[in-house]
Design goal:
By secondary structure, the protein is α+β, with helices and mostly antiparallel strands. It contains 37 helices and 18 strands. Strands 1, 6, 7, 8, 9 and 10 form a 6-stranded antiparallel sheet that branches. The protein has a 4-stranded antiparallel sheet with strand order 2-3-4-5, with no helix packed on it. The chain has a two-stranded antiparallel sheet with strand order 11-14. The radius of gyration is 31 Å and the shape is globular.
Length: about 800
């Protein structure tokens, strides 16, 4: 059976989209691990003496200059102009260069309201972003950024809008001082080296330190001091047994991709640190197409940092292709002068017949990446190349609005024009497969399950790309039927680590013997992400459900799960997840403390406000429960869960006007919310029976399997003198639920009120035969029959 997970008790796991990498002092090579673990970082300058050529290539690279101090040298080198006065939120901002400094002014007309000293730059490839120190040790991304291609300043927060699940809600930007724009929280480890955030949870203060700005050699190779010691002590002609560093030349395809992915992925860290060479999903989770920053077909709608699209690349499993095939470790393009090189190593036939393959004359100057890896500018300023390597698909543009390479070049033409040309090619039906699964992704996002069997087929097919399978599993968290359990249990045996992890998470809340056995096995999976998702799903079971040996397995995985939630003490969602953990363990006080910590770190976080309100109500502190729900509604007035909880709480406190208002808001947001409709029908029944009938009908139709809602609708119909409709509904309900006494007795009373004692008696006697071994129902029916016979 499935545990009760009505919206009033909803427990949602947060998946923050943080980007970061922290290198621990470990190695996969043959060096003495203990000695290397205690080694010190020497800094990139220490590499120059022996590796000057590589140093000179790295030092001016985008990795080397990923972050730079704002000083006279930076200002002289870049010669950026002062900005105009640019509106951001409710103010206007201007960047001004003053001698050797850079200052951000907040102005109203000509009056300066605030000034911010700019200390650091980030990026510079397409866009320069800048950092200013704020209170509590924060380095904050300022609201203006510089477009290096257009040579213009622009409103930076508007380049990272949120994409909402409700298509009627317009995308909107976060405030520029939001935590997602705080360097210490979001972008820290992809722009500097050997960083410690040093976050003090008690004071919510950062004491952040780092070894070097930019991505240095030791980011990928580990601490160099031991390496330097070994080579300085070598005798002439002597070869070391071990070089004392992580040697990336020996990396496999998987290791190369994994070592780049921490910075080039929309991911969630599950460990405090990562060592290049280790397995990616032992340290991170990654966003897939459940995230609205992707179009349903997987093309990027927002900043997704490459990995997810790379995992959709059909060339990767068929070849030895990896990140360093095309890029150097410092981020340069190996094929800048010959962009087709990597492709024609496998596709020589296409290279030899390039004009026929592309359908374009040589003067078009196309390359393989023109069509298979087009650079797309999103939100007006950022350029990203599509790493899925898929061909142009204009029909997907027509269907989903996603970009395609044809119309990126032929911007004066329509996607319909491009689609006609594509379909005339010899293999012109190549879009069909993507159209089919992308449509399923869209339907799952919209909670449309008419093609659920086809979704199951894709999930169960090992030949289907793992990103597609994972996306469907994650989206099916809202699919209410238990038929998905068999599919998810089978998916736990997938070759894909990501699919297994999604399946483990998807089984949460379903307490069957098969589910328990499958999750216990997954707790011993070779991949940490699978283990922690599996144990998370098992923690809602009681300890009595497991043998001593099974509990030992759970305890071991549970330790990893707790570490995954405490790896980032400055992350509100980590504390939110910790609250869910404590709540499942039955520790209400610790759960409330974790939820309140999450809210303290990020006041706009709705889920911990909602969940804590439930626990406050449980402990009898209805005032605090109501306060937290009011805060949630203040941040998101139409939030379904917040309004439902608030409406139910107000009804419990006999504040019916407040309850009615909140529950009506729920139905405005979700017209099929049975709980809201049911409670509204009860509230309004005292003043408007017609409306009570309308609301109770909504509840009945939203959840036809629950006889309580059908009974309630019939009750109000009867009260509203619509006996025939009430009888019809009760007859149907009793046929489906022979032991639902409330419906049986209501129907019997309707018959009695109409003077039909015989029909009532017949109903009760028939019900007595159909209720099975329900002793209480048997006794009540026998009593009712006896009373009628005495009438």
């Amino acid at each position: 059976m499935k545990t009760n997970k009505s919206i009033f008790y909803i427990l949602l796991l947060a998946f923050p989209t943080l980007v970061g990498i922290a290198i621990s002092c470990q190695t996969n090579n043959k060096a003495d691990k203990q000695e290397l673990a205690s080694a010190e970082y020497a800094g990139s300058v220490s590499c120059r003496e022996c590796h000057e050529r590589f140093y000179k290539l790295w030092e001016p690279s985008y990795h080397g200059k990923a972050m730079e101090p704002i000083n006279a040298a930076f200002i002289e080198k870049n010669k950026l102009p002062d900005s105009e006065l640019i509106p951001v939120e409710s103010s206007h901002y201007q960047v001004v260069f003053e001698d050797t400094t850079m200052v951000l002014y907040e102005k109203e007309d000509d009056k300066i309201l605030n000034s911010y000293q700019v200390a650091w730059s980030m990026g510079g490839h397409n866009v320069y972003c800048f950092l200013t120190p704020l209170e509590k040790g924060k380095l904050q991304t300022i609201p203006l950024a510089y477009d290096m291609n257009r040579k213009t300043w622009f409103n930076y927060p508007e380049s990272a809008v949120r994409h909402f699940y409700d298509e009627e809600i317009e995308d909107e930007a976060l405030p520029w001082k939001d935590a997602m724009y705080t360097f210490n929280t979001g972008c820290y480890s992809c722009h500097i080296s050997q960083l410690s955030t040093n976050f003090d949870l008690g004071t919510e203060t950062y004491h952040t330190t780092w070894r070097e700005a930019g991505i240095n050699c030791e980011t990928c190779h580990g601490p160099a001091e031991e390496h330097i010691r070994i080579f300085k002590n070598l005798k002439e002609g002597e070869e070391p047994e071990d070089v004392g560093l992580i040697v990336t030349k020996k990396f496999t395809q998987e290791q190369h991709n994994a070592s780049c992915a921490p910075c080039h992925a929309k991911m969630t860290p599950i460990t405090p640190s990562y060592t290049p060479g280790n397995k990616y999903f032992d340290n991170y989770d990654v966003a897939t197409l459940e995230d609205r920053d992707f179009y349903p077909d997987g093309r990027s709608l927002g900043e997704n940092y490459t990995l997810t699209s790379w995992m959709m690349n059909p060339c990767v499993p068929k070849s030895k292709l990896h990140c360093v095939t095309c890029h150097t470790s410092s981020g340069r393009d190996r094929n800048k002068d010959n962009p087709n090189n990597s492709c024609i190593s496998c596709h020589a036939d296409k290279g030899e017949n390039f004009e026929a393959h592309t359908g374009h004359k040589p003067e078009a100057k196309l390359t393989c990446i023109s069509c298979h890896m087009p650079r797309r500018e999103f939100v007006g300023h950022f350029m990203r190349s599509d790493h899925s390597f898929r061909p142009p698909m204009p029909e997907l543009t027509i269907r989903f609005g996603s970009p395609n390479a044809c119309n990126q070049c032929h911007s004066d033409k329509s996607p319909e024009w491009a689609n006609k040309i594509v379909k005339k090619r010899p293999n012109g039906n190549y879009q069909e497969e993507t159209l089919q699964w992308a449509q399923l992704i869209k339907e799952a996002r919209d909670n449309n399950w008419e093609n659920v069997d086809l979704m199951f087929k894709y999930i169960g097919d090992e030949k289907t790309n793992e990103v597609i399978r994972t996306s469907l599993i994650r989206l099916m968290v809202n699919y209410p039927e238990t038929s998905k359990l068999k599919i998810f249990i089978k998916a736990l045996q997938s070759k894909s680590e990501l699919v297994r992890s999604a399946a483990a998470s998807g089984l949460s809340g379903y307490h069957t013997l098969e589910t328990k056995k499958a999750l216990l096995k997954a707790c011993e999976d070779e991949i940490r992400l699978v283990r922690i998702n599996a144990v998370s799903s098992l923690l809602s079971y009681t300890t009595a459900s497991f043998t001593k040996e099974e509990q030992t397995i759970i305890d071991k995985a549970e330790q990893e799960y707790v570490i995954s939630m405490t790896a980032r003490p400055d992350n509100w969602s980590a504390h939110y997840n910790l609250g869910i953990y404590h709540q499942n363990k039955g520790n209400t006080t610790k759960a409330i403390n974790s939820y309140e910590t999450a809210v303290r770190l990020y006041p706009q976080s709705l889920m911990p406000l909602i969940n804590s309100s439930i626990l406050y109500s449980y402990k009898g502190n209805t005032a605090k429960a109501a306060e937290n729900l009011r805060l949630a509604i203040q941040y998101d007035p139409d939030n379904e869960a917040a309004n439902l909880n608030y409406g139910l709480l107000m009804a419990e406190m006999q504040k019916m006007d407040d309850a009615e208002k909140a529950l009506r808001t729920v139905l405005k947001t979700n017209k099929e919310n049975a709980t809201a409709a049911y409670n509204l029908s009860v509230i309004v029944s005292q003043k408007d029976l017609n409306e009570a009938c309308e609301f109770s009908k909504i509840a009945m139709e939203a959840e036809p399997q629950d006889p309580k809602f059908a009974y309630t609708h019939a009750y109000f119909l009867n009260q509203n003198k619509q006996q025939e409709k009430a009888i019809e509904i009760l007859d149907s309900t009793i046929q489906k639920n022979p032991d639902h006494l409330a419906s049986i007795f209501l129907l019997g009373n309707i018959y009695l009120e109409s003077g039909n004692k015989g029909k009532t008696l017949q109903l009760y006697e028939n019900s007595l035969k159909n209720i099975g071994n329900n002793q209480q129902a048997t006794f009540q029916l026998q009593q009712a029959i006896a009373q009628i016979k005495q009438m």
